[in-house]
Write a structure and sequence with these properties.
With 504 residues, the chain is α/β, with parallel strands linked by helices. The chain has 22 helices and 16 strands. The strands form 4 sheets. The protein has a 6-stranded mixed sheet with strand order 4-5-15-10-11-14, with helices on both faces. Strands 9-6-7-8-16 form a 5-stranded parallel sheet. Helix 3 packs across helix 11. 54% of the residues are buried.
Length: 504
Amino acid sequence: MLYTSTRAGSVRATAAQAIAQGISREGGLFVPESIPRFGPGELDALARMDYIGRAEHILAKFLSAEEGGPAAWRREEIACCVQAAYQGTFSQPEITPVRPLPSNNGQLSVLELFHGPTCAFKDLALQLLPHLLTASAAKTQQGKEIIILVATSGDTGKAALEGFRDVPGTRIIIFYPSEGVSAVQKLQMVTQEGANTLVVGVKGNFDDAQTGVKEIFTDPALRTSFAEEGRVFSSANSINWGRLVPQIIYYVSAYCDLRNQRRLWPGESLHFAVPTGNFGNILAGYFAKMMGLPVGRLICASNRNRILTDFFTTGQYDRNRAFHTTLSPSMDILISSNLERLLWLATGGNSEMVAGWMRQLSTTGAYEIPGALLAQLRETFSAGACNDTQTKNTIHQYYTRSGYLADTHTAVALRALEDYRNATGDTTPAVVVATASPYKFAASVLSAITGAPEAGDEFAAVAALEALTGVPCPAPLKRLHEKEVRFTDTCSPWKMKEYVLQHV
């Protein structure tokens, strides 16, 4: 399995090189040259495995190298990484349980991805990525120290910090929008332990932080000077293929679990509704579909910023619009990096065309794809969006109707699926991807249920929500407010490079 770049078709890299490097040197994202397919009976075999077995099997398809190559992955090595990531680190034995919910317009389940150490879906990738990255670096980087730079809209930061905490040979710097994350998300990051961790608030939004990180990655002079000092950059954002590939696993696992629950027949089509910001989570579902998983539609759910909803409606990607801070902050994004990978796949690997669109996005803030390509994408993707009022109404509706407590991101996907079904009459079995614990956004969830104004004290809201609903607060969040704050630094987006130079 070799990898190339979305912006340069001449690039060739092994899986280890793609993971260790994080991003291609001209700014493109690594993509597999070909997509492995499930063979006859393979999904039946996966259905008989547990999550760890499924993970080992699927990762082996993407991490293989040329026979005898220096960067080849052994199956035992993959198993070691997977077991270190998932054994004993998640609070549910299934790791990603699938819960049925009552529905008036078709079978509905929720895929819960928030039972890891930081209570967000990013744990599924970021408990594994440190093991993949350090193993990849050992194969390709000859003992260099890895400097991991991360831009986060909220959940990636804490999950990456927890995954890389005190991992030998690594240092990790997190940049987050200083006024653009929830109180719980911020406290999770600024209280992080670990001698190799650093957390910085950026005076701007997530897109500012993400742009700053990409500029550091693609600065040739900086890369050269760091290499001379025995250091290399890498990323824990979903621009890194090693972060994206583990997310394919839980789509396959959800299908297998529904089959085992006898809620889905072998080969029966299944829709997924996904709350979407940077487009990595839903793109993993698209890779699963390309591998042969019987995925019907992927419903891309956006909040008030709705840039992806507009793209799938019109074919125009235009970030020249007002940026809204919403109740679902992890989706407050106007530059969805992983959409670039989808465009590369949809154009048959036309890196020249993709590079042109990315140049337009950088210089003008917008681009438009041809109508035929949009029609092709809409054969799989539907899109919907809702505002904060609709998000709260959905949380209230599902709690009142079924006792299910959804966070402010999962509620956006629940609403988008309902809107899709009401518009189309499509009753195909569907899974809503639940991306975070409601206790990460307790004030908003409590307000949605009670109708009262949001509490000013997020941790008072945590206690009140637990008392009202009887749904236990996850242990990692329960005592968070008692932890010592370690990081208070902030910087402007244009000072991020300078900050890295000062602190590394």
